[in-house]
Amino acid sequence: MEQTKTLQLQHYELLYIIPNKFSEKESDSINEKVKKIITDNGGIITHSEKWGNKKLAYQIKKFNYGYYNLIEFDNNAENLKNINKALRMFNEVLRHQIIKKEHKKPGQIAKAKKISQKIVAKNEQKQQKEREKEREKEREEEREEAKLKTKKSEKGKIELKDLDKKLDEILETKDLL
């Protein structure tokens, strides 16, 4: 009974991080090496995604950024141990995690993508509204600042008539020197 369970293919997801000390081309060759580790150990790769260079949540081995990659594959539990061990020994991979995953049908994948697109659209709308509020707030502050400047300049203004009177008074006095 146990032998049939271990020989049965399960669906797994591997998420791993390559440090950003490597270029994008080098990370592609490392991705190929990781895929080769999976296939050499009896795995069948069903899906692969590159998530790109992202900031790590915390520093790992003095690296703050890394190339995130996701691979979904089918394999049995016996070979999974070998893959895990090989990835631990592979120095080009900072961290990796393998989880058992339910195999999704194409309809489920499409539905999940639609949902994620709706979430992204709502978040973008929310961010756009926040940006508009910020701009309006900045404009209002600029208007208030302009009003204060005009009030200050109006207070400091002396009418030309008053200036002429003051000048005449000064010139009429006999104690200039």
Features:
alpha+beta, Alpha-Beta Plaits, four-stranded antiparallel β-sheet, 56% helix, 5 helices
Describe the structure.
It is built from 5 helices and 4 strands; from the N terminus they run H-E-H-E-E-H-E-H-H. A 4-stranded antiparallel β-sheet has the order 2-3-1-4, covered by helices on one side. By secondary structure, it is α+β, with helices and mostly antiparallel strands. It has helices at residues 2-7, 24-40, 77-89, 106-156, 160-172, and strands at residues 10-19, 44-60, 63-75, 95-100. The longest helix has 51 residues, at 106-156. It is elongated, with a radius of gyration of 35 Å.
List the helices and strands and how they pair.
Layout: H1 2-7, E1 10-19, H2 24-40, E2 44-60, E3 63-75, H3 77-89, E4 95-100, H4 106-156, H5 160-172
